Amino acid sequence: MLEPKIVFALAAVLFSVGLYGVLSRGNLVLLLMSLELMLNAANVALVGVARYWAGMGGAADDFSRAHSGQFFTLMVMAVAAAEVGVGLAIIVAVFRRKHTSAADLATELKH
Amino acid sequence: MLLEAAETATNALQGVVGLPQESYRALAGIIGNDTLSYFAPELVICVAMLLVLLVDVSDKLRSPRNLMLVALVALAAPALMILGKWGGEALFFYPAWGNLAQYSNLEGHISLQPDSHMLVFDGFANFFKVFVLASGLITLGMIHLDKGTPRRSLGEMLTLLLGSVLGMMLLASATNLLMIYLSIEFMSLASFILVAFKRRDRKGTEGALKYMLFGAVSSGVMIYGISLLYGMAGTLDIALIGQRLAQVNDPLAIAMALMMVTVGFGYKMSIAPMHFWAPDAYEGAPTPVTAFLSVASKAAGFAVFIRFIDAMSAQSTGNALPIINWVSFVAVIGAVTMTVGNLTAIWQPNVKRMLAYSSIAHAGYLMIGAAVVAAGGEIGGEAGARIADVGGSATAFYLVAYCLMNFGAFAVVQVVANETGRDDMNAFDGLFKRNPTLAVVMAILLLSLLGIPPTFGFIGKARLFMAGLEAAQAGYPIMTVLLVIAAVNTTVSCYYYFRLIRGMFITPGEAATANRPLIVSNTGWLMAGGSAVLTLALFVAGSFFIGPADEARLKRRPHLEGAAMPQHDQGHVEVKRGDGSKG
Amino acid sequence: MLLAEANTPVTDWIYTLVFMAVFVTTLMAGLWVVIARDVIRAGVSLFICLSGVAGIYFFLNAQFLAVVQIMVYVGGTTVLILFGVMLTNRAPVLTSRRATDRTLAGWLATVIVAAPLFVILVGRDLMEKKDVKTANGWFTMKEAAAQAPINTVALGDALLTSYILPFEIASLVLLVALVGSAYLARRREDESGIEGRLS
Hints:
Chain A is mainly α. Helices cover about 80% and strands about 0% of the residues of chain A.
């Protein structure tokens, strides 16, 4: 009933949208938000896959097969939250010097 | 756990005094589980991280000296523990790092479930762990040397350094995508902060910002790639994935997944499309951190990349051949990386930036080794495994050389920056007048980076090229092309290395300081001079590291029983919910 | 499981309806995060999108993850980001700058990445018939509705058996993040003067 393709399509759309946001946004906070979208898209795909493998049944390693996806998602959530925290700390540190968060990286940092 | 780890540390110290084998056996008994004893070095670092934090908040104990001491023990003890366990007989020096078989018979995996192995403790992992720990030790020395590091924040800095080292050690032995992701994030989070460590410095915080954004994006891409792999193989264990992908006939999906996961590793290795963060982060970071990142972080990235390639190329990429062939893929990335690195390095006015681009170029050279591993994996069988091992050990060997010369070069930059407060090219003008020995030291290190004969860098590069030739002879013409490009690139890199050398020896320095001698502290001499001397000495005695590097062998798991893809009936998928809802 | 075990057509109908509502909301909110020019609005739509993802988790039989998603992402991360907005800007509204080339790069990379993803995930039906082997991949996923033991108890078991090591390592990652962000964000009493060299 719940067509898995729909879930993966959602994941793919969110991922692409997030990627677009990351590349096109100038504002750092907006950039972080797009990043969150990307991570969530990957999580949705992982949970969707875990759902699929759980449904397969049968094999001996069923347990970890079905759970590794959900567990991975759990870890991504924990670590990504930490990453956002660190990212915001860095943004705040930059902001203290520049007093703008619309820092265009390209202007300050040449390649 | 804490007590046990303390026991571990004491035992490691006893091991230094001369109780190698027995104490480790006892240690295994104490921890109670033979497999967990493999994890003891990491446990020591965990405890030390907490210890550094505790010492840092204690009014009585808090002093830079104490903090450094804890960190020193925390980095030295695990290295000795690994060496002791690895070499079996001797602790410090070992004629050949043999005796690995003794341990590889043990089940060196930590896991309860058959396909959820998290870590593997093979020669390859051990090599990179010792390498990372040694880099950490050298970094400690450089922190000692550095005048720019805020001393009051030394506790935080060492905690983060230890955390980063721990992440790299885990990464070197991770065999599970979950563990790989966690370790990459671990080392990344710690290094973001380390780069931003000079909080008042605009370059530092902005470099860290760029580093962090790149890191977060590439880890997002990597997770998505992992979800594709997991979707196709139903497991996160890379050995199993490699074996199961052989049964999946979908080139596009495999290629996409492998490329997306490679993005995550490539960012750590700072290879071509993912290298943009490196110059800014390297320039903005305190010099010890720069050196640490450019050596240890890159090594850890290569360790996991090679392990990943080896697992994946075994049987699986055959299925992705129409779209992606590992050997060509890695070779093309390598060629692009070294070219971009070298061409951009030419224009850099700042020595740290120049060294950053040169380290990108070196990542390109190291990709030769990775390509050889990929070729070995594709050939398969005994012969393929041998070629892959040659590639792995050439990479490991070159990393040793790279570690020496790069740390040395950054130490010289540090010394000069301490004196002049600058790290642009002009600061090096007339260095020969001010301190001839230092100029000679820097010249030796630069020649080694370039790979010119009387230096260790030459041997490293020669071994890489020989490995590449071996793969080329095994039927990979693209390797020949890659080697030619690498040779051309080496020539290009002459330009910017020699420009700096010319500046030091010929160009007169600024009039105000031209004749004032540049004073170098003892630590400075130890770091810079030591690495230069080693670079020269190892040209003669380079064979010393061949043994260890050859011992850096991946432990390949035999075909697993669970490798077969779980099948479901093609005709009728079992649907419990009835079929009324959906056509 | 809450919804999936319902059997009657009426509940099926409601099930579909609720799912489509959650799905569309998530998608639209996700798009709006990238389109919105106003940071606060983008933040609110991120909030909605992340809640929607939690809803999707419920439908995917991952109840524990759904709860964690609400607690960590919706409750934590979004609020953190909104704090970031407040900390980094005096005005509550901040408009984003856009450069044309950045937008172009965004489109380019997105198309390069998205096109294969959609071919892999969605447009697979055509290839499927040609090749039996493809059926092993996830793209042929049918609703394999057998209720395998994905539930909170099993996940908790996994947490403390197979995955004990990553679980512990994650705590160290959090420790490092905590120490690091505290260092970066705290008042800088220490930088009035850099003390002398070591020892």
